[in-house]
Write a structure and sequence with these properties.
Elements lengths: L6 E7 L4 E4 L5 E14 L5 E13 L1 H9 L5 E14 L5 E14 L16 H4 L22
Parallel strand pairs: 4-6
Antiparallel strand pairs: 1-3, 1-5, 2-3, 3-4, 5-6
């Protein structure tokens, strides 16, 4: 029998991304997301439901999330469900279901466009003053021959 494990989520971060490194130096990032859903109940009132999801992201993408995202940032995550199981300090079995991200796409906050590295913690201090390369200015739509 075929199987499929694919997750698509769009929501906002509930805290700043946290990154640690494995003994071999691979970056591992933890993201916490809130996904809001609004629906109309049978009595006609509008209800809001929030789903909180933990996401793990690996490698360079984890470092990029740390450098460019902060609490409240809107993101689109594509990944798969992962069940983590371990034994607690008193021998009890523990487990948690979370999303292992294959791709994290940064979404616009709506008003201000893109953002640079986080001023308070970001990459520039941790990598010895190195910062992300500046983005090329956006082309003027009037110069574009494409009709859409």
């Amino acid at each position: 029998m075929a199987s499929l494990n694919k997750v698509f989520l769009m929501g906002n971060l509930t805290r700043d991304p946290e990154v640690r490194h494995t003994p071999k130096g691979t970056a591992v990032g933890d993201l916490a997301m809130a996904i809001n859903m609004t629906y109309r109940a049978q009595d006609g009132t509008e209800k809001e439901e929030v789903c909180y999801v933990d996401v793990v992201v690996w490698g360079r993408q984890a470092e990029t999330c740390r450098d460019y995202l902060s609490k409240g940032a809107p993101v689109f995550v594509e990944g798969r469900l992962q069940l983590d199981q371990w034994e607690g300090p008193e021998g009890e079995k523990k487990s948690r279901l979370r999303v292992r991200a294959d791709r994290v796409q940064f979404l616009s906050r709506g008003g201000g466009g893109g953002r640079g590295p986080r001023a308070e913690g970001g990459a520039s201090r941790e990598r010895g003053g190195e910062s992300a390369p500046p983005k090329a200015p956006a082309a003027d739509p009037a110069d574009d021959d494409v009709p859409f």
